[in-house]
Design goal:
The complex is a heterodimer of chains A (468) and B (270). Chain A is an alpha+beta fold. Chain A has three domains: 12-180, Bifunctional carbon monoxide dehydrogenase/acetyl-coa synthase(codh/acs), Chain M, domain 3 (2-Layer Sandwich), CATH 3.30.1650; 187-400, Bifunctional carbon monoxide dehydrogenase/acetyl-coa synthase(codh/acs), Chain M, domain 5; 417-467, no CATH class. Chain A contains eleven helices and 19 strands. Chain A has helices spanning 87-99, 119-123, 129-143, 158-180, 220-229, 252-261, 315-322, 359-365, 386-396, 400-414, 428-438, and strands at 24-29, 36-42, 53-56, 67-69, 71-78, 104-107, 114-118, 149-155, 189-193, 205-207, 235-239, 243-245, 250-251, 287-292, 297-302, 331-334, 354-356, 458-459, 466-467. In chain A, β18 and β19 (466-467) form a beta hairpin. In chain A, α1 crosses α3 (129-143) and α10 (400-414) crosses α11 (428-438). Chain B contains eleven helices and eight strands. In chain B, strands 3-4-2-5-1-6-7-8 form an eight-stranded mixed sheet, sandwiched between helices. In chain B, α4 crosses α5 (116-130). The chains are: A alpha+beta (468), B alpha/beta (270).
């Protein structure tokens, strides 16, 4: 591929180049313009006249030095493997390729594009958008093999930009709706983030389309963008590998990265559970899903929530038990965005298992809580003690109540009532509920502890064996 | 010209020694005596430099990052757009573009929540932006955190400002040591003495020498500057005969900032 017929250079070295206000010949789009956009559209092969470049409105040479113009770039592509799902990725390349042009700056995307051409490049002969069209056509065809046909349209005419604007916005909205619907099963790459490594050396943040980073800041799309720009940086691609269990979110690729990055401390992870082989928690998580053993449910509290939660502990105390890159069953760092995901703790019962959350979170994500549960999950305005919580859940017939029945029945059969008598410890039924609730795998570590008991019962799950 | 030689200067020192005044004076000298493209960064969260330079700052980088963090929380960003791209544009928008120099205020982020990711994006974006200027001058905050964090990573010339106080002197030593500790690869570290009384100059100078530090010059007390500060006026209003301005010009000259040949030498490219 050659650009010898163009008056200026094209190359990756110009990528970070900014055209400063005093050096600019014209600005296309940008904050001063009300309407501007760039758009990639997948078309059928017969809808495209290959390599056609169209300019609607004044060309660069018709513009006054120092002037501002409305602007639209429409790149239409076709090819056997070109699908509408790729439009976003193709469109993003416009940014990259325009930046390869010496003396041209491209910032932002979609309806925010901001392009400047330098006086110097204009004076050297880059005086028509035809040249920019050639750059795009050639780079797209060489860099993306799936593109067999391409045509590019530039619009600088204000009325024409406005006429095409609503269609562009609709297309972005549709694309975002598709992106929100993107599932973990549909992609073959997840992204890992080690930005928190100084806080939590064994932590690996696994970012998938349906599981946002714990900090709530990094989406799968952010991961993809960062890994592309800087593959050796703190955000890197995780090949998903084989799916061990789709429902639990277990993948060979994820497990392998965990083994490598945690130096063998963590080897297996279920992405959608807070209890069984849970995802590790850094120090930056936005919220904690914490077990409330007395009701066999999970509460959620976020970082901004001041004061105590329903179990008497504030965020900060529970954060200490959660953080540090460990797998702590029942204390699970999450992002608020993850609560908008259909995969949200689905192994544990998802929303059916959530029994308490702060009012401000509830408001923020109300539409993502299943409708029939919305008034069954209390906030700090409803209950602030465990007995009140129990009563609330029972009165509203929260789904966790069904779990109590199962356990209580089991309880009556296996535990002697006599342990109740001294009254100094929690009601045994409740303690068992915790073990039952965690579904095995609960690790209890005592350090420098002295434990006195009249009687200790350790029961093997399912067999009913009792050992004294 | 994109990515030719570039020089990053940072101005540090204890709070109240006159970092901002020295930065502003140096900015004026660089913008008037050289034709080099100049980016000025106020990295002090208090944001005093704009007044000293007479620029209006619509939004600081910190404001933008805070806003970004907020829209992340509210889930109002477009689902499939990458935040690094959105942030880059917003920061460029907050750049104040002028005839003599461009200006960026760092400010600070507000509110809780994790800024690891947003800060990392900022670092990348600022590094990239400063590649577009031949000289970047940063007025740092009094604290030392930035040494272990971000903005100072690519600094060529570290200027430490002191007054005659013991505290300022000790802060200078700490800054020097910390800079070494975190392996910032300075081409030059130098000290500028601000408002040091004549009778103390020899002692201060010897004290620095004994600790391996170089006193590049002294900026004298200048009533005209006190008056400007009082009125809140920019250094560009200062008369050309101002002794402080004159002293800073001398320091810049000695440092090699004002001549093509010596500047290249400073960059190790001659």
């Amino acid at each position: 591929m050659s650009f010898d017929d163009l008056p200026i250079e094209i190359g990756v070295i110009y990528e970070g180049e900014r055209v400063r206000g005093k050096d600019m010949f014209v600005e296309l789009g940008g904050p001063k313009m009300d309407k501007k956009f760039e758009l990639a559209i997948a078309r059928d092969m017969n809808e495209i006249e290959d390599e056609k470049i169209t300019i609607i409105g004044p060309d660069l040479k018709d513009m006054e030095e120092g002037s501002y113009h409305p602007f639209a770039i429409v790149v239409e592509v076709a090819g056997k493997d070109v699908e509408p799902d790729l439009e976003g990725v193709i469109e993003r390349r416009i940014h990259e390729y325009v930046n390869f042009v010496e003396g041209m700056m491209h910032l932002n995307q979609r309806y925010d594009i901001w392009i400047r051409l330098s006086k110097k490049s204009f004076e050297e002969g880059f005086n028509t958008l035809e040249y920019l069209g050639k750059v795009l056509v050639r780079l797209f065809k060489t860099e993306m093999n799936i593109i067999e046909k391409i045509q590019v349209t530039f619009v600088t005419d204000e009325a024409e930009v406005a006429a095409r604007y609503d269609d562009a916005i609709n297309r972005y909205n549709e694309r975002d709706a598709r992106a929100r619907g993107l599932t973990d099963a549909e992609v073959d790459t997840f992204y890992g983030c080690s930005l928190c490594q100084s806080f939590a050396p064994t932590h690996v943040c696994t970012i998938t389309p349906q599981r946002y980073a714990n900090c709530g800041a990094i989406s799968w799309f952010d991961g993809r963008a960062a890994a592309r720009v800087d593959p050796k940086g703190p955000l890197y691609a995780i090949p998903k590998g084989d799916t061990i269990d789709d429902y639990r979110g277990e993948y060979t690729g994820v497990n392998q990265i965990y083994t490598e990055k945690s130096l063998g401390k963590v080897n297996e992870v279920s992405l959608y559970s807070a209890f069984d082989k849970p995802h590790t928690s850094c120090g930056c998580f936005e919220a904690i899903a914490f077990v409330i053993p007395e009701v066999d449910g999970l509460g959620v509290v976020h970082r901004d929530f001041k004061g105590e939660t329903v179990n008497g502990l504030p965020f900060s105390s529970m954060a200490d038990s959660t953080a540090g890159g460990r797998q702590v069953p029942g204390f699970h760092g999450i992002s608020i965005e993850y609560m908008r995901s259909p995969k949200f703790l689905q192994v544990d019962g998802g929303w059916n298992r959530i029994v308490w959350l702060p009012d401000s979170i509830k408001e923020r994500i109300l539409e993502f809580i299943p409708e029939e549960l919305r008034d069954k999950i209390p906030t700090e305005n409803d209950v602030m003690t465990i007995p009140d919580l129990k009563a609330f859940l029972k009165s509203k017939s929260h789904p966790v109540v069904e779990r109590w029945v199962e356990i209580e029945e089991e309880e009556d059969m296996s535990v002697p009532v006599s342990t109740d008598a001294d009254g100094a410890v929690a009601v045994p039924g409740e303690f068992t509920a915790m073990v039952g609730g965690v579904g095995g795998g609960l690790e209890i570590v005592f350090k420098n502890a002295r434990i006195y008991a009249e009687k200790v019962i350790i029961r093997r799950k399912g067999t009913g064996d009792k050992k004294k | 010209m994109y990515m030719r030689e570039r020089l990053v200067i940072s101005v540090s020192g204890k709070g109240g020694v006159g970092k901002t005044t020295i930065s502003a004076l140096l900015s004026r000298v660089l913008s008037e005596k050289t034709r080099r493209s100049l980016l000025l960064v106020d990295a002090d969260p208090v944001i005093n430099l704009p007044r000293a330079l007479g620029v209006d700052v619509p939004a600081s980088v910190g404001n933008i990052a805070t806003e970004m963090r907020k829209s992340i929380d509210d889930g109002t960003l477009p689902a499939s757009a990458a935040k690094q791209d959105i942030l880059e544009g917003r920061i460029f928008e907050s750049l104040v573009e002028g005839e003599r120099f461009d200006f960026l205020a760092m400010g600070r982020t507000e509110g809780e929540g994790c800024y690891c990711y947003v800060n990392r994006l900022l670092t990348q974006i600022l590094d990239r932006l400063s590649l577009n200027y031949e000289i970047t001058l940063m007025d740092m905050s009094a604290g030392l955190e930035h040494f272990s964090r971000r903005t100072n990573r690519n600094v060529d010339v570290l200027i430490i400002v002191i007054d005659s106080s013991r505290a300022a002197f000790e802060a200078a030593l700490r800054i020097r040591d910390l800079a070494k500790e975190v392996h910032i690869d300075f081409k030059k570290i130098l000290i500028i003495g601000n408002r040091i009384p004549d009778n103390l100059i020899p002692a201060v100078s010897t004290g620095l020498e004994d600790n391996g530090l170089d006193l590049a010059g002294i900026v004298p007390t200048d009533n005209a500057i006190a008056e400007l500060n009082y009125l809140g006026k920019p250094v560009f209003d200062l008369s050309a005969s101002s002794p402080a301005l004159h002293a800073v010009e001398g320091i810049a000259e000695d440092l090699g900032l004002l001549s093509e040949v010596t500047l290249l030498k400073l960059l190790g490219q001659a």
